[in-house]
Design a protein that fits this description.
Helix content: 40-55%
Largest sheet: 6 strands, parallel
Distance between the termini: 48 Å
Shape: globular
Radius of gyration: 20 Å
Oligomer: single chain
């Protein structure tokens, strides 16, 4: 099989596929990001076409829909007719409208398969895969899905069903991220000990593990990316576009996209999306005394 895209998510997914005993070839636009996977047993390819040559399953985990379309077109000479294309990139509805027809054009069996989870679940093989695709592709995809995820939720056979579900899930993830970041920023701005806030909600209906994880990143100022600000802004704009297409106003998502934009402008584009925190201090880059 082949993995195209070995960034924050693609690299650990490929590593888990190797650990599961699958024959894996990998490609990344920046080859240096793919080369460490050779130690896990992957074969590093010099081009998308070389990576996919003869592969029964091709998994894409790239930045967005256009990058995915460009890469798969570049891979076309090596693609096997009838191969299963597991499309895991968060491409949005507009991106999917390009990718599904491309699969038909190239004779591929398309499975819309975005994932829920960040770097740590990807490393542990504990992603939640949201999938939509033809029934006959499920058996061939099963070993791959079992290696990268803890479970797979099949949303239907129609490509797009999984992407729509992913956009709904991401709207919640991003809202909680911004809520945590703003609460922590307000605490710092008002001189409130953030631990007092966390103690106040502990164990109640307002508490959650995700709050603790993102609050911990903000308090430690350790923004090692599990999901980067720049990518989160891209996803927020996909959510807004999907809402517009459906006639649904996404006011919180729109405000959140602007927060990510400001954080990126302040130099945090490649940091974890918890760095939305800094968007609360656009003039100073942080609270007084930070």
């Amino acid at each position: 099989m082949a993995v195209l895209g070995t960034g924050i998510m693609g690299a650990p997914m490929a590593r888990n596929l190797c650990s599961a005993g699958l024959d894996v070839r990998v490609w990344n636009r920046t080859r240096a990001k793919a080369e460490p996977l050779a130690e896990a047993g992957a074969r590093v390819a010099g081009s998308p076409g070389e990576a996919v040559e003869g592969a029964d399953v091709v998994l894409t985990m790239l930045h967005d829909g256009p990058a995915t379309a460009e890469t798969v077109r570049a891979a076309a000479p090596g693609l096997r007719s009838g191969a299963v294309w597991l499309q895991c990139t968060t491409a949005g509805l507009e991106g999917l409208a390009q990718l599904a027809p491309l699969a038909r054009e190239l004779g591929l069996t398309f499975v819309d398969a975005p994932v829920l989870g960040t770097r740590a679940p990807a490393e542990a093989g504990q992603l939640l895969v949201l999938a939509a695709g033809p029934e006959h592709a499920r058996a061939e995809a099963a070993p791959v899905l079992e290696a990268i995820g803890s479970r797979t939720v099949w949303a239907g056979e129609e490509p797009g069903a999984a992407t729509r579900l992913k956009l709904v899930c991401n709207s919640w993830v991003l809202a909680v991220t911004h809520g945590t970041a703003e609460a922590m920023a307000l605490a710092d701005g008002l001189g409130v000990d953030p631990q007092d806030f966390l103690d106040a909600v502990e164990g109640g209906s307002l508490d959650m593990g995700y709050l603790r994880i993102k609050a911990g990143a903000i308090r430690s100022r350790d923004f090692t990316p599990s999901f980067a600000v720049g990518t989160a802004e891209k996803d927020a704009r996909l959510i807004i576009a999907a809402g517009e297409e459906a006639g649904v106003r996404m006011d919180v998502a729109a405000a959140g996209a602007e927060r990510f934009r400001r954080a990126a402008e302040l130099g945090h584009a490649d940091e974890d999306m918890a760095a939305s925190y800094y968007a609360s201090f656009p003039e100073s880059g942080g609270p007084a005394g930070s």
